Amino acid sequence: MEFPQIDEAYTLINEKLQVWLEQGIKHLPNIVVALVIAVVFGLLAKVIGSTLQRVLRRAFESKQIADLLTAIAKAFITCAGIFIALDFVGLQGAVTSLLAGAGIIGLAVGFAFQDLTENFIAGIAMGIRKPFEIGDIIEADGVFGTVEAINLRNTLIETFYGQLEIVPNKILFRNILTNYTVQGYRRVEIPVGISYADDPEKARQVIVEAINSRDYVIDKDNTDVYAESFGDSSINLLVWFCMKYPGEPNYMIVRHDAIVTIQRALADNDILIPFPIRTLDFGIKGGEKLDAMMSSKQSRTDSEKSREVKPASSKGADSPEQGESAGDE
Known about the structure:
- It is a single chain.
- The chain is α+β, with helices and mostly antiparallel strands and about 325 residues long.
- The chain is about 60% helix and about 15% strand.
- It has three domains: about 10-110, Helix Hairpins; about 135-180, SH3 type barrels (Roll), CATH 2.30.30; about 185-305, 2-Layer Sandwich (Alpha-Beta Plaits), CATH 3.30.70.100.
- It has helices at about 5-60, 65-90, 90-110, 115-130, 170-175, 200-210, 250-270, 290-329; strands at about 135-140, 145-150, 155-160, 165-170, 175-180, 185-195, 215-220, 225-230, 235-245.
- The strands form two sheets. A five-stranded antiparallel beta sheet has the order 4-3-2-1-5. Strands 6, 7, 8 and 9 form a four-stranded antiparallel beta sheet that branches.
- About 15% of the residues are buried.
């Protein structure tokens, strides 16, 4: 009993195997070269990655960012070697399919993890730009403190109240960020008011001399006092001076000492720092003199009292007559 279908299938399989064997023998040198290329690119990725890692760790404060960039560079070199090897074998279609698939997967992942990706990219950008470093004092989006760590997704900031704030990198990347450490100094502003009876120029000289006598004041030529505005009870002045920042003594101690120094200097020179005062002036245009108002009010009061006394006197005069009538009866 014959099975023609099995014979035909065997023949087809045999022919295919022979073709593949012939093609394999024909492309064997290309396959060997492709394997060599892949191995060479793998070793190259390892060597370049190690060198790049050392360089990036010296360049960036965050080791995570350095390691990430190193991993990306190694993956890029390895993938380039694989694609070149596939192309050398003659699998250009496979290379195109892999690139298209990688693009689609990357797009899908980007949309699915948009917030994570944004923080991630912001962390890499800040690692390259380096707007601040670990130990810097920064302020951004209501957070004010010392940078403790810089990660890929967030930055850890210790506030001056002792809390540890975890701030997403995109917030630091998008918003206005103030770095108080870069310049090495900080300007201190202290408002103070003097009475209208005192001379602002004299107060300015007294305050500048007193502030410049303190050791924490730097760049003393820029210490100054400016008349800011007319207040309800005082002429408002603004005291400016510079201190080393960050450093010792700290900002709050310097500000406290400066306020005490200003108060003592003004008191020693008989310059008044007034508390809120309210003065009633009835003599302005359209008004009335205070003494005239008081005299008019006193006259009305006396008149009202006299009217009240007369009826009472009449009643008192009638009472004896009634008493005498009652006695006669």
